[in-house]
Amino acid sequence: MTNEHFELLVIGGGPAAITMAKELGSRVRMGVIRREAHSMIYCAMPYAVEGLLQPEKTLKADTLVTETGAQLIRDTVTDVDFEKKSVTTQAGNSYTWDKLVIATGAEPVLPPLKGHELEGVSTFKKEEDMFKVASMVEEGMENAVVIGAGAIGVELAQALAARGVDTVLADMADSVLPNLADPEMTAPAAEELQRLGIRLKLGRKALELRAREDKPALIGGVVFDDGSIEKADLVVFAVGMRPEVSLFEGSGLEIARDGIIVDSRMRTSIEDVYAVGDCVSFTSAITGEPAGGKLATNAVPMGRILAANLKGEDREYPGFINGAATKAGELFIGGTGMKEEEAKGHFQVLCGYSEFTTTFPIMPGAKKARLKLLADRESGRIIGGQIVSGQPVTDKVDQISMAIQFGLKVEDLLNFSYSSQPWQSFYPAHNLLVKAAEELSIQLSGPDRKPAVLVEAR
Ligand SMILES: Cc1cc2nc3c(=O)[nH]c(=O)nc-3n(C[C@H](O)[C@H](O)[C@H](O)COP(=O)(O)OP(=O)(O)OC[C@H]3O[C@@H](n4cnc5c(N)ncnc54)[C@H](O)[C@@H]3O)c2cc1C
Q1: Which of 351, 350, 344 is nearest to 371 (CA)?
Q2: Among 50, 117, 155, 328, which has the highest number of CB atoms less than 10 A from its own CB?
């Protein structure tokens, strides 16, 4: 039985924990306790199922942690004693700390529907999930139902369809990617998914999972609330993430519905205990109210800010803006900040649209790009934006995130200085962001706005 002391002990093995190791592994005596065999590049898992890369390529090397100087401990923490500043593990070892960082992440939700324990019913996060789905595809699986049409569900459904699996993508919402963009912006993505042969079942709830009649241990189909039954050799739930905080229940650590409560410096309610990443509950940078934000692009910056503070700086996490993107067939789609309906609960929402081509329209291969910008009528602040395009969109999403994060207003974007080149943008005469801001500006000036007049030059 080991009994070891660390200046800094991290529970976790995902992007948040790895960031802590990269920043501090060489500076302090640091231990990282991770329960699974490999850290993973989760975002690439669907593409491994699709066969675009070897599944093993999604496994991160342990050297990401060990080469920093931090000690990697492959074990599961089973108990935490905040008084004694110690953890106990499944292997029976104990470790004490001066400072503890909780980076335990989040677990995919598996709704407790009748039949959820059947073989062939899965979530999609773990290494085993990916290898299981990939091997079922290899073995010639015929029918799959993916429940949850968020980015993970959309990407996985495409991977299965590309491998010849008859795939249903279902969601309770009436549109795909409901947390990424508004329905009129995601409609082209839904059409793309259908063009790829994916059968969409939107506005429908899965009620029950049925076993196969000939093999009762295996999943056979999904019953929906309209009475329809979809055949399935595989059912994957991609319906959201729940913070992995089971270890701390009843420990005195303050926990909210969406995770461990931290302040903007990532300090928990217990001294010398910090939390970062998906296990944390935090607020929206736009409203200041608690908001979801289980993204690697939130987990890593939280880790960086905590590491900077532990090095003696004083930095604060500004809150979630939640820029994200995905791909549906030939379309790239992204969104950031607030969606229209959710924003209506907080602001008087104005929406401006623009549509141009991804290159000069006279160039070969020009594709459509459409952008939506949301602003608050009262303050003129930019509060959200979305884009669907034939070219990658993350840079545009990030421009809008920057506008939101730094409090830019519609009038600021009217003067946005942009670049243009025949292969990479529309003509210099227009820019998606500026054009959408112009549309918003007209709305902001209200119904009393005077028609433009030319002043006679005498
Ligand atoms: C399929 C998929 C695709 C995704 N795509 C994107 C994307 O495109 N862009 C994006 O920004 N985000 C994406 N995400 C989300 C992103 O992966 C997460 O936000 C990110 O991994 C969170 O990092 P984390 O370090 O906080 O937690 P995690 O990565 O969940 O890591 C938590 C770690 O803690 C360990 N742990 C928990 N409890 C214990 C314990 N008791 N003892 C020891 N170890 C423990 C876990 O085993 C795990 O290693 C995707 C997620 C999935 C599943």
Answers
A1: 351
A2: 328
Q: What is the pLDDT of residue 446?
A: 75
Q: Whose CA is nearest to atom 52 of ligand 1?
A: 42
pLDDT at position 2, please?
85
pLDDT of amino acid 36: 95
Chain center to CA of 97: 31
278 C-alpha vs ligand 1 centroid, how far in Å?
7
Closest residue to atom 15 of ligand 1, CA basis: 295
What do you get for the CA distance between the two ends of the chain, in Å? 94
323 Cβ closer than 6 Å to some ligand 1 atom: no
Nearest alpha carbon to residue 209 among 238, 226, 231: 231
Nearest CA to ligand 1 atom 6: 43
Structure token pair of residue 208 = 């029950």
Residue type, 273: V
Domains of the chain, CATH where assigned = 3-105+244-311 (3.50.50.60), 108-240 (3.50.50.60), 330-445 (3.30.390.30)
Q: What is residue 95's predicted lDDT score, i.e. its pLDDT?
A: 98
168, 243 Cβ separation under 8 angstroms: no
Distance CA 135, CA 138 (A): 5
pLDDT along the chain (458 residues), means of 10: 94 98 98 97 97 96 98 98 98 98 98 97 97 96 98 98 98 98 98 98 98 97 97 98 96 97 98 98 97 97 98 98 98 98 96 98 98 98 98 98 98 97 98 98 76 44
Q: For ligand 1, atom 37, name the residue with the nearest CA.
A: 104
Rg (CA), the chain: 24
User: In terms of pTM, does the model score above 0.90?
Assistant: yes
Q: Report how far apart, in Å, the C-alpha atoms of 237 and of each of 112, 169, 174, 189 are.
A: 11, 10, 17, 20
